[in-house]
Design brief:
Length: about 100
């Protein structure tokens, strides 16, 4: 079971009450692409909010983390860490903060 944490605005957009973790079964190999595909399949209103509709690249000001590592620029098809795959650690979708 893959655990996914989204920023609060995406929970509201998806119509999910409260905030916390989502949980998905994802077939191997577990990659950022397969996890994000699972999120978008369950919550189609999030399509285009996390990744571009056409290119499937992450949106500006969205970052991906797992096991305290920034995966935002990693290949989408690289396997996620074992700690994420077995549910010990969540996959984090974070809204980046910009400004000055």
């Amino acid at each position: 079971m893959i655990r996914v944490v989204l920023p609060a605005p995406l929970y509201r957009m998806a119509g999910i009450e409260g905030a916390g973790e989502l949980a998905f079964d994802v077939a191997a190999p577990v990659t950022q692409r397969t996890v994000l595909d699972a999120v978008e399949a369950r919550y189609p209103m999030l399509r285009g909010a996390i990744r571009d509709h056409d290119t499937k690249k992450r949106r500006p000001f969205i970052r991906f983390y797992a096991c305290e590592d920034d995966l935002s620029f990693a290949e989408l098809d690289d396997p996620l860490p074992a700690e994420v795959v077995d549910g010990r650690e969540p996959y984090l979708v974070i809204g980046a903060i910009a400004g000055g």
